[in-house]
Amino acid sequence: MKPAMTRKEFRQLVTEVLATLPRDIASRIENVEVVVEDEPTAAQIRGVGLDPQQDTLFGLYEGVPLHERGHDYAALPDKISIFYLPIIESCTSIAEVRDEIRTTVLHEVAHFFGIGDDDLDEWGY
Fold first, then answer.
1. CATH code for the domain of 88
2. Coil, helix or strand at residue 21
3. The model scores a pTM over 0.90
4. Residue among 108, 97, 110, 125 nearest 11 (CA)
């Protein structure tokens, strides 16, 4: 059974997780917008090599990783999307939702820093 959680409550959990990021990490995150969206589009799912008919995403980083930016880098903000419906539908308790949001936020922030999925898998994320 999926937990009863409003989008507003979900957004609050995302905000709380962001507030708990270590200061040395949080201070380096610039020009990044973190948003809560209902669910990923089929194009977003395909864009990371998944099948929209079989797969979904809990989060997505869209932008230029920090290590690829030059000293004169200027662009629109990068974007980290955290997807409400896939997380809610996959979890069975509020505690599980909180844990998944934390894992997802950390995963997407890692992509901002240029850490790839292979390294994250190896580290257990």
1. 3.30.2010.20
2. coil
3. no
4. 97
